[in-house]
Amino acid sequence: MVQRWLRRHSTSGPPMSVRTPLSWPFKVALGVIYVVVAAALLAGAYQLGRASVGATREPSGDAALYQDKLRKLTAERDQLATTVNAAESRLDIERSAEKQLVAQVKVLEAETARLKEDLMFFESLLPAGPAQAGVSIKRLRIDSPGPAQLRYALLLMQGGKGDQEFVGNLQLSVAVVDHGRNAMMVFPDSTPQDVEKFRLSFKHYQRLEGILALPEGLIVKSVQARILQKGQIRAQQSANL
Questions:
Q1: In this structure, are 46 and 71 located in the same domain?
Q2: 128 vs 102, higher pLDDT
Q3: What is the pLDDT of residue 2?
Q4: Are residues 139 and 223 in the same domain?
Q5: pTM to 2 decimal places
Q6: Is 198 found in the same domain as 236?
Q7: 2 belongs to a structural domain
Q8: Does the pLDDT at position 57 exceed 70?
Q9: 199 lies in which domain range?
């Protein structure tokens, strides 16, 4: 009891904290420090933001550069493709023209050879002496233009005055080798169409040419041409292949 009464009436109490009021210069200095720190933090954040923005923009700048290069390369490719296509078109035109020229040259060569034959033929018509009457074979040529084909060409002439037309027909006898055996083939055959192709009708001269179709595997050795009139041989000549 005594102890309680002493504690209750004692002057000692709970500890007390004493705060000394801040002076206004100290407050000003503290505010300045706060402002400087805040400014430093804002500046750091601003620089960090610029760095991050620059880092994000740099790749986009490279992409734009690559896109520009791609556009230039695409334009160059398109230009080269146009040039190549134009060159190919010109080359095709030149090739076509070359083929036409080659064909024309072949035609002219054939015509020149034919004219030479005609010249030789007409020169042969000039009689060195009195012209002999009757029909003659001035020239006979044969060759093989392809497999199982025989080409013939001959010139016929009627001597004398030539005031009457000669009417007759041509007959070709072809000597061949068929699987090691000699054989003879006679043209035309008995068909009217084939006979008509070998019919002759002229006053002064006539030129005949054509291609005979032969069976496969035959080897042509020679050809004999006969001029027939009413079943009689008026002229004949042979040529070897």
A1: yes
A2: 102
A3: 41
A4: yes
A5: 0.49
A6: yes
A7: no
A8: no
A9: 131-240
